Amino acid sequence: MQSFVAFAVAAVRQQTGYRAEILSMVLGAIIEVFARISIWKAVYGGQHAVAGVTLPQMIAYAIIGATLLSNWDAALVVREIGAAIRTGQIGNTLLRPASFPVMLFAENLGPRLFNFAAVCTPVIIIFSLLYGLLPPASLAHGLLFIGYVAVSTTLLLLISILFGLLSFWVFDAHSLEWFMRGFGALLSGGLVPLWFFPPVLAETAHVLPFAWITYYPMAVYLGQLDLVSSLTYLAVGLCWIAGLVGLIAALWSRACRRIVVHGG
Fold it and tell me: In the chain, how long is the greatest CA-to-CA distance?
């Protein structure tokens, strides 16, 4: 646990040293949220609601979904793992006190939490003042939403680590990086909520772990799910976390054998 915290703290300290990068991230998030809101205002036109969802709800979806839930490019983890494999630095990870997946999780969790405070919070405040921001559907939905944000962040990191570890069996990690970025943006509901999907695609997306990154947290926040359903889907999200942890552990075990075999 001490190693985990140390990796996370070190990553945050490194992140705080790049003020220009933080400013660029804030500006980039502002542009992205503004573009999303503009698109949804154009889509709705003069209509009060589409598919049972009002324009104020979609503005809230755009503001929170594009900041707290999906503004971090997790595919960078895939690139990091691919680079470590390509350069041979992956062999050094076997000498560290923590396993490589745990180290990756800690090193990316720290900056992600810092991103919440330094990037997401000011952007949410700015757009709340400009457009207004709907509060959670109820106090209970708001409390559950906090749990969903934790699940969303954890799943996002685990999925990126899982895709990254597949680099041991794929020649070019860039293909995995682009596949995860596109697949995740579509099926997470980050770009378009799943309630606007065609029925067949929506049914598939609802059961995949990507949906817990953006769609389900926002569905809970907006009250699209009742409290019983919200608790049920939160439990399913926790099951996905447990399953991905087990799958990552199995992949890393096999990857370690490949390192030993090829490295001697």
Answer: 67
Strand 49-50 versus strand 53-54 pairing type = antiparallel
pLDDT digits (tens, 9 = 90+) for 20-54: 777 888 898 899 999 999 999 998 887 888 878 89
* Closest alpha carbon to 29 in 116, 94, 89, 105: 116
In the chain, what is the straight-line distance between the N-terminal and C-terminal CA atoms, in Å? 31
Measured distance CA(51)–CA(83) in Å, rounded: 44
Give the integer Cα–Cα distance in Å for 191 and 32. Answer: 11
Which residues, 6 or more positions from 246, have their beta carbon under 8 angstroms from its beta carbon? Answer: none
Closest CA to 259 of 94, 54, 34: 94
User: Which pairs from 134-139 meet CB under 8 Å and 24+ separation?
Assistant: 134/56, 134/57, 134/59, 134/60, 134/222, 136/221, 136/223, 137/220, 137/221, 137/222, 137/223, 138/223, 138/227
Considering only CA atoms, which of 153, 160, 141, 125 is closest in space to residue 212?
153
* Beta bridge mates, 54: 49
Closest to 214 measured CA to CA, from 237, 190, 238, 182? 190
Of 210 and 110, which is predicted with more confidence? 210
pLDDT digits (tens, 9 = 90+) for 216-245: 999 999 999 999 999 999 999 999 999 999
The sign of the dihedral angle between the CA atoms of 126, 160, 16, 24 is: negative
The reply to whether the predicted model has a pTM over 0.85 is yes
